[in-house]
Automatic annotation (TrEMBL):
Residues 21-335 form the Enoyl reductase (ER) domain. InterPro entries: ADH-like_C, ADH_N_2, ER, GroES-like_sf, MDR_fam, NAD(P)-bd_dom_sf. Transmembrane segments: none annotated. It comes from the Bacteria. GO terms for molecular function: oxidoreductase activity, acting on the CH-CH group of donors, NAD or NADP as acceptor. Gene3D superfamilies: Medium-chain alcohol dehydrogenases, catalytic domain (3.90.180.10), NAD(P)-binding Rossmann-like Domain (3.40.50.720). Keywords: Oxidoreductase. SUPFAM superfamilies: GroES-like, NAD(P)-binding Rossmann-fold domains. This is NADP-dependent oxidoreductase.
Length: 339
């Protein structure tokens, strides 16, 4: 039997960021690792996820998910290998998906872990295309935005883990036109050449409203919003009557110190009879089996493509998160502890 580690490292939040997070707001600390007790497993994390929603959890405000506590480990999605088990149904060597990321070793009740199969897809895919971001894309487009074949769809933050999947699902489900925005010319090229978007633009190259009008001359029926701000305002201007908006995120304002600027043209929603709906992925667990079945099939056939950006070593966990906020990732941003 292999000896268990005596200690492991984990990232703690030590100060609440004021605006953009600073590396000094975090600390990498070494803590003891103990053998699991009855009903629990010990997991060596191989990959953990960093996601935009985590920025909101760094503020001490009430939200749909509790804020990170100071001087305590942060958490989030992770995939790892069971290295010790005192739980029925979990054996050493099993790979599991769980919620205790931001650390090298996770000790948790087995009921909070889900076994994943690395032969069906790379383990890291369960944090992205087949994980929470993928389900967000699937449920947000199909359930929340009530997508139907023939809809013209606009996705902001379209080169990210969620946005890139939204656009491809729309295309595979029969969209008449799929448009995306991203933050670099390279990402715009990726959206069109690899992901099959009909049009895309770099929001840094000019006013979003003008670029969207050019990309969607006949308007749009669905807007999947990951950004907020000027993107939401532009989308309201281009939405056709009875258009729908899935409000997933507002990354443009996550680090604002002042009051965020709302869309100045919200009154358009009245005459156009628009529906704007916010959503949380946890409310859509009922479609999880359908999502995994359909999307995994598209991934295996090559009809749906995905990218991952890996940042190696737990030492670089915070830098990977900050890079995500700066838009340095293409597809899912993942911290790789497997090496």
């Amino acid at each position: 039997m292999t000896a268990l580690p005596s200690s492991g490292r984990e990232w703690h939040l030590v100060a609440r960021p004021d605006g953009w997070p600073d590396p000094e707001d975090f600390a990498l600390r070494e803590v003891p690792v103990e053998a699991p007790t009855a009903g629990r497993i010990l997991v060596r994390n191989l990959y953990f996820s960093v996601d935009p929603y985590m920025r909101g959890r760094m503020n001490d405000v009430k939200s749909y998910v509790p804020p990170f506590q100071l001087d305590a480990p942060m958490d989030g999605g992770a995939v790892g290998e069971v290295i010790a088990s005192e739980a029925e149904g979990f054996a050493v060597g099993d790979h599991v998906l769980h919620g205790l990321g931001w650390r090298e070793y996770a000790s948790l009740p087995a009921k909070h872990a889900k076994k994943v199969d690395g032969s069906l897809a790379p383990l890291s895919a369960y944090l992205g295309v087949l994980g929470m971001p993928g389900l967000t894309a699937y449920a947000g487009l199909l359930d929340v935005a009530s997508f139907k074949p023939g809809d013209a769809v606009f996705v902001s933050g379209a080169a990210g883990a969620v946005g890139s999947e939204v656009g491809q699902i729309a295309r595979l489900k029969g969209a008449s036109r799929v448009i995306g925005s991203a933050g670099s010319d390279e990402k715009v090229k990726l959206l069109v050449d690899e992901y099959g978007f009909d049009a895309a633009f770099n929001y840094k190259n000019g006013p979003v409203a003008e670029q969207l009008k050019e990309a969607a001359p006949d308007g749009i029926d669905v807007y999947f919003d990951n950004v907020g701000g000027d993107h939401l305002e532009a989308a309201l201007g281009r939405l056709n009557q009875f258009g729908r908006v899935a409000l997933c995120g507002a990354i443009a304002q996550y680090n604002d110190k002042g009051a965020p600027t709302g869309p100045r043209n919200l009154a358009l929603a009245i005459g156009k009879r628009l529906r704007l709906q916010g959503f949380i992925v946890g409310d859509h667990s009922d479609v999880q089996p359908q999502f995994v079945d359909e999307v995994s099939g598209w991934v295996r056939s090559g009809e749906l493509k995905y990218n991952e950006t890996f940042v190696e070593s737990i030492d670089n966990g915070v830098e990977g998160f900050l890079g995500l906020l700066r838009g340095e990732n293409t597809g899912k941003m993942i911290i790789d502890l497997s090496r």
